[in-house]
Amino acid sequence: MKRLEVRLRREPGQERLVGRLAETGSRSARGQVVFEYDSAFLANPLWLSPFKLPPQAGLIEHRDHDFGPIFGLFDDSLPDGWGLLLMDRFFRQQGSVLAEVSVLDRLAYLGTRTMGALTYHPPAEPSDSSDRILDLQAMARASRKVIEGDAGEVLPLLLRAGGSPGGARPKVLVGVRGDSILSGEDDLPPGYSYWIVKFPAHADSPDAGPTELAYSLMATEAGLTMPPTRLFETPAGERFFGVERFDRRGNRRYHVHTFGNLIHANFRIPSCDYRQLLEVTRILTRNHKDVLECYRRMVFNVLTHNRDDHVKNFAFRMSDEGVWELAPAYDLVFAEGPGGEHTMTVAGEGRAPARRHLLDLAASAGIEAADAESILDQVATAAVEWRTYARRAGVTSKSAQEIEKAIGRCLARLR
After folding, report:
1. CB 198 within 8 A of CB 240
2. Which residue, among 185, 346, 317, has the nearest Cα to 258 in the 3D structure?
3. Which of 48, 75, 72, 117 is CA-nearest to residue 322?
4. What is the pTM of this model?
5. Coil, helix or strand for 86?
6. How far apart are alpha carbons 163 and 105 in whole angstroms?
7. pLDDT, tens digit, for every residue of 194-250?
8. CA–CA separation, 266 vs 243, rounded Å?
9. What is the DSSP code (8-state) at residue 349?
10. Residue from 227, 118, 138 nearest 181 by CA
11. C-alpha span between 326 and 257 (Å, rounded)
């Protein structure tokens, strides 16, 4: 039986035992995943996952297999897309049969190199903090080799820097101080801040980085709460989008829970409406400002043709006191979405949400009509200026024009 301790790590040397995970059955015939909160944690608990894993005594069996193999609280520690590809390559190189690699094996592999504040012990291997200086251009080349099926000698470095974040696009976790860039999968020296740097995927245009930067500039102008963003430029002229991580402040870590994993909604299956997101935000944060911010993000996604608005692209962050807040916006891009529709519907409409859908949803969420109209106007004013942000970010004229046409069609539905 595989067992892991789950700890909440605030900063180096400060952590709490949350509880213990176990998986019954043999490696070839795995059984159920169970979790038990530690008695000391229950004496003064934090509600780390209030809907699906509230603090309670005794063994808790994971039974929601339609959602996935493990509770959403711990699934948020696991990568998907790019990080999962790297992890699978590692296990194959170790001679493992992927069908026999359990979800607890994957959590142990990550150990303390996780996003958020939960860590898993004992880790499969000790963290190696040597040779942390990164060459982003080399990392981009290495990521392309991985996608093409030839990991070569660079895979170990990619595994350390790119093995834990979610999302489909290749990316690395870095520490940044001026022009110095280190691998950022673990604690950083003083003066460094934590960033995520994304590389273009195989199907991306060459200016994917500048385009995402332009979207972040447009989102800021539209009033969304955004983390700092920038382009990382290499001597060869490549430009990669980077965003500062909101689960870190210095080496202090913050617990983060995505909307999808909070309610056990599989992000790969479009099944949610923004109505549910607004309701969960109201219940969890108890802050109407967060509900308004969440509504603003929905409007932004609708008006700027970001249809990659799945349930893991919204998250909540817990303060040191255990209070939930809506995390800053992230993964704002131009995207067609599944079948040309929004991944989350807007008052039931996914293909062409219009003004009436946005206003109907506002009313159902308890948002005053005047507030909803004001948000629509502010976001639309920013979206009309797309070309301005595209020029500032260095988006090519061809890409800027294509996106401008799509945004124009979205704006036309406001009338």
Report:
1. yes
2. 317
3. 48
4. 0.95
5. helix
6. 14
7. 999 999 877 788 899 999 999 999 999 999 999 999 999 999 999 999 999 999 999
8. 25
9. B
10. 138
11. 10
